[in-house]
Amino acid sequence: MTIRTFHSQLDYVKQELLTMGNKVEEVIAEMKEAFESDNKAQMEMLIAEDSAINQLELDMHDKVTLLISKQQPVATDLRKLIVALKISSDLERVADLVVDMAKQSIRMNKHSLPVYKEQLLAMLRIAEDMITKSLEAYEKSDILMAQKIALTDDKVDTQYGDLIRELFKVEDASVEVDQITQLAFIGRYIERIADYATNISEWVVYEVNGKHFDLN
Question: Which of 13, 39, 114, 197 measures 20 to 30 Å from 175, CA to CA?
Fold first, then answer.
């Protein structure tokens, strides 16, 4: 394989990873829509379709492993391939968290605690935006954008903490403990999605600078 061909393969890996990222963005958007409208059929569909994203992650792993074993890249080129592996794993985990969110949401009573449902939707919108911007930072190798995304994670953490504190104060006897638990779990999954967006931002910084930075 010539240097030019190898670099074409590197570009292809990046585009494939961005395609995977777009798929993950789609499932987050669908989950948001299903959660807002309490569309359990749509949630079931999201759970069933998760295997497709799992396969994309496995395919990425195979392509990158093959390139490393055949070309034995060093320095920047090696970092690009390692970062592709790491980000694909983070994206696959984000899709898993969407599935977890769907499973918990299916168990929820349609009419339980609507005010907290709105809080969860607000958190999910922020986490969704963080994933989108982290992928844009990766596409553009934009360190400044990556750092700004990580700062937003604090906002999600604060909202998650507020949600948990408020849920523990619920005194309405008609509200089942199980429903409160489902809401707390869903909040945790959204908070973790924001964490993975921060992880992706950290990988962008590593790819460009060659140094690890904890942006959290």
Answer: 39
